[in-house]
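Bump. Still looking for Ribosomal protein S17 structure tokens.
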Amino acid sequence: MKPIVGYVYNTKMNKKLSVLVPYHKFHKKYKKLLVYKKIYIVSDFREEASEGDLVLIRLESSKYNKKLSLIKIFFKV
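Sorry for the wait, here they are.
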């Protein structure tokens, strides 16, 4: 899985984050660009990110473990 860039949406869980990832899709019939959003639960063991930060997340290297982990914080709020 390629790395995903998103915004920290919620930090109220213990060592976990909710990351909001917006993406765009083009509607064929109406010919409009629509914005969709998906929220991922990401593990953050160091608890260094706060709400509103721009972060890079990636799937961990384990084949059986489907967890996402925080890689880098691009912009701190």
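The longest strand covers residues 16-27.

Edit: fixed formatting.
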